[in-house]
């Protein structure tokens, strides 16, 4: 992780994109003062795990979308680079362009100083080639940065889920130990009462 605050698990401590750190329970007695609080604490931890898992699924979905988007941007950028290198007196280019996944058409492409780019939501705009190149470079670097952020967030989320799972196990084990102590103390009291003569 690139930016961890020193007070891990403190209120308000987050990663660079605002995902909160999970509380680290080193000593259960400092976190849970009585057995009555155990169930509420375990429920709180389960809610936190659910939230982290929800964020993990959304981040995976966003990363998957970016992994599909980046090759498309790269392919478009390669074509703009090619058109940028062409000279005004170049012969028309014969190309096969994709109409559908399995359907291509032949076209003769004369020299041009503009390209049309799909922006999304059924919107296409005409750009001069230098502007299109800059736009695509910016989009590509932004998408790659978002991919890196998503991968970092996924690692961070997995770490937080593990931290909460360990905290849950510690609190649960502490509760079991306290029950055994209470049962043993109760058993000792009953033994003492049986040993007393009438």
Overview of the structural elements:
- It is a single chain.
- This protein is α+β, with helices and mostly antiparallel strands and 198 residues long.
- The chain contains three helices and four strands.
- It has helices spanning 28-31, 38-85, 129-195, and strands spanning 93-98, 104-109, 114-120, 123-128.
- The strands form two sheets. Strands 1-2 form a two-stranded antiparallel sheet. Strands 3-4 form a two-stranded antiparallel sheet.
- A hairpin with a 5-residue loop joins strand 1 and strand 2.
- Helix 2 (38-85) packs antiparallel against helix 3 (129-195).
Report low-confidence residues grouped into runs of 5 or more. Answer: 1-10
Write the H/E string, N to C: HHEEEEH
The tally of beta strands, per DSSP, is 4
- What is the general shape? rod-shaped
Mean pLDDT: 87
What labels would you give this structure?
single chain; 198 residues; alpha+beta; two-stranded antiparallel ribbon; rod-shaped; disordered N terminus
Write the layout of secondary structure elements.
Layout: H1 28-31, H2 38-85, E1 93-98, E2 104-109, E3 114-120, E4 123-128, H3 129-195
Antiparallel strand pairs: 1-2, 3-4
Helix pairs in contact: 2-3
